[in-house]
């Protein structure tokens, strides 16, 4: 991996719809930079075993390749019946709650320098996984009117990528990338296969002394095939096709040489669900002096609907009968008129570097959300009375709200052998009090990181974190529950036995009890994360 770029803000102007809360951009190394071999082997309690190998070599003077294979087996997380609705505990006791899984993946890439100014990259990956899971769905089984079951689900897929890059001049370069992806997920509730074709063109050019322009065009085609249990049906055929057309432009303007930059960017898309969408961004960066810099940004981003929100019908809940009412089947119905969820984000940041080894970063933000997912009561069908009554609720966009907060971070390189980092974030949420989706984040989060090399052959990494309590929508979607705050400590020791051999030991989530971090808005059971450890040996050859 050459770099991992974390953009923790709306980035839709360049990355497109659904880049609402940020983007993780992983840039892998050119195969010529990873010649030779690497292998690792490890095992622990949760990480029960993993193995991986990579080998790179030159094919010709102008071409190189890299191949890899890796696999792992992970144990189940801890399920605690206290995290489940009390009315469901007895019914869930009959099923195996293991969620262990196994994964195998292999692939490779070839990099070819066609000419001095032209290069071609070809890559492909294949993966397959098997995972145990326990689920629960609405049913007519008394007394809870939910059925629990356990299963082993299977997933597999592969992808193909080609990237052609050509430099037109010292100030102009374009890239044409084509990508194909196949994914298959087979579980008891549904079986989904998707085929994705993506074509992306990007051109970067410097105009004059002040404009760094990047623009591009894109097209994406997705076909899928869905088969499912009777509680999950679709108002459209099992196989659908969607098309996404896009264009973007970004212009970084140097208003003052090496001091003030204004970036104007926007993305224009047309999708089959909501039609034409515009996602602009304006950003200003001021390098006050060598120690101080200030930036600010305003951005709009959207989350486009999925099949669930537009054309699926889900029997989400069955309410047991009472003295005055028969069983009520609650159906959540997709809405063809469902719109994209929107965010407009306002940010401002400041960096202070009193010396090269010490930095302080501050960012404040305000996010305004609109057209968030909600559900509303629709029609009631009495045709099956007295056996049961069907109540239909529909996805709508009546939910809105806002949040604001601050992020603080500091990094101090004490010596070449010791580095300290600390991070703090605060967020205040104000959303409509409706059961629509999980929108609430923990109010406060704190982390500290120490990287220390006491010996030339020994490295130590220490991480402590605190995550505040929050509220999460329960799996059946009928109420909010509190996720308690928790703390955790991670420790890693790395011993370089020789320049090519490394022995490592890792402990994760140490010194504190197992805790619940999140509960999915779905039929899955909640699980706690506890302490774990593993050891690893790696070798370069």
UniProtKB/TrEMBL annotation:
Record Pfam families: TonB_dep_Rec_b-barrel
Keywords: Cell outer membrane, Membrane, Receptor, Signal, TonB box, Transmembrane, Transmembrane beta strand, Transport
Bilayer disposition of the protein: Multi-pass membrane protein
Predominant subcellular localization, coarse grouping: membrane
Domain TonB-dependent receptor-like beta-barrel, residue spans: 99-510
Subcellular location: Cell outer membrane
InterPro entries: Beta-barrel_TonB, Beta-barrel_TonB_sf, Plug_dom_sf, TonB-dep_rcpt-like
Domain of life where this protein originates: Bacteria
Family: Belongs to the TonB-dependent receptor family. Hemoglobin/haptoglobin binding protein subfamily.
PANTHER family per record: HEMOGLOBIN AND HEMOGLOBIN-HAPTOGLOBIN-BINDING PROTEIN 1-RELATED, TONB-DEPENDENT OUTER MEMBRANE RECEPTOR
Protein name listed in UniProt: TonB-dependent receptor
Taxonomic path: Bacteria, Pseudomonadati, Pseudomonadota, Gammaproteobacteria, Alteromonadales
């Amino acid at each position: 991996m050459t770099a991992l770029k974390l953009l923790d803000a709306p980035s839709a102007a360049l990355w497109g719809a659904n880049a609402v809360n940020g983007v993780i951009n992983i840039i892998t190394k050119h195969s010529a930079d990873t010649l030779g071999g690497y292998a690792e082997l490890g095992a622990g309690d949760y990480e029960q075993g993993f193995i991986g190998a990579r080998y790179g070599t030159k094919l010709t003077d102008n071409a190189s390749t890299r191949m890899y294979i890796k696999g792992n087996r992970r144990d189940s997380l801890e399920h605690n019946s206290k995290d489940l609705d009390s009315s469901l505990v007895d019914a869930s006791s009959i099923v195996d709650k293991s969620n262990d899984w196994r994964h195998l993946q292999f692939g490779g890439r070839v990099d070819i320098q066609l000419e001095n100014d032209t290069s071609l990259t070809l890559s492909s990956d294949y993966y397959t996984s098997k995972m145990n899971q326990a689920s629960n769905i609405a049913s007519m089984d008394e007394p809870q009117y939910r059925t629990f079951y356990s299963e082993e689900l299977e997933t597999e897929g592969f992808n193909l990528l080609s990237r052609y890059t050509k430099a037109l001049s010292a100030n102009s370069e374009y890239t044409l990338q084509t990508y194909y992806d196949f994914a298959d997920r087979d579980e008891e509730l549904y079986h989904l296969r998707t085929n994705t074709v993506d074509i992306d063109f990007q051109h970067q050019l410097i105009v004059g002394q002040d404009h760094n322009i990047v623009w591009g065009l894109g097209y994406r085609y997705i076909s899928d095939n869905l088969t499912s249990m009777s509680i999950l049906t679709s108002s459209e055929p099992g196989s659908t096709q969607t098309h996404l057309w896009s264009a973007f432009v970004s212009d970084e303007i140097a208003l003052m040489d090496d001091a003030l930059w204004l970036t104007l960017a926007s993305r224009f898309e047309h999708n089959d669900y909501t039609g034409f969408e515009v996602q602009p961004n304006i950003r200003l960066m001021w390098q006050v002096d060598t120690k101080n810099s200030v930036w600010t940004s305003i951005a709009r981003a959207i989350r486009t609907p999925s099949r669930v929100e537009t054309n699926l019908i889900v029997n989400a809940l069955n309410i047991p009968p009472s003295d005055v009412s028969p069983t009520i089947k609650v159906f959540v119905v997709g809405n063809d008129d469902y719109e994209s969820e929107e965010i407009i984000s306002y940010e401002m940041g400041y960096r202070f570097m009193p010396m090269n080894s010490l930095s302080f970063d501050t960012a404040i933000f305000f996010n305004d959300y609109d057209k968030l997912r909600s559900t509303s009561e629709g029609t009631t069908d009495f045709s099956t009375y007295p056996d049961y009554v069907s109540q239909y609720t529909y996805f709508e966009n009546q939910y809105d709200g806002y949040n604001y907060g601050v992020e603080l971070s500091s990094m101090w390189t004490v010596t070449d052998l010791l580095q300290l980092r600390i991070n703090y974030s605060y967020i205040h949420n104000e959303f409509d009090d409706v059961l629509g989706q999980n929108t609430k984040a923990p109010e406060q989060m704190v982390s500290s990181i120490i990287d220390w090399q006491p010996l030339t052959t020994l490295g130590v990494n220490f991480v402590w974190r605190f995550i505040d309590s929050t509220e999460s929508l329960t799996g059946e979607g009928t109420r909010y529950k509190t996720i308690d705050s928790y703390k955790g400590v991670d420790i890693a020791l790395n011993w370089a036995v020789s320049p090519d051999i490394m022995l490592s030991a890792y402990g994760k989530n140490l010194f504190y009890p197992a805790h619940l971090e999140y509960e999915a808005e779905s039929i899955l059971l909640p699980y706690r994360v506890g302490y774990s450890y593993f050891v690893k040996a790696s070798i370069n050859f």
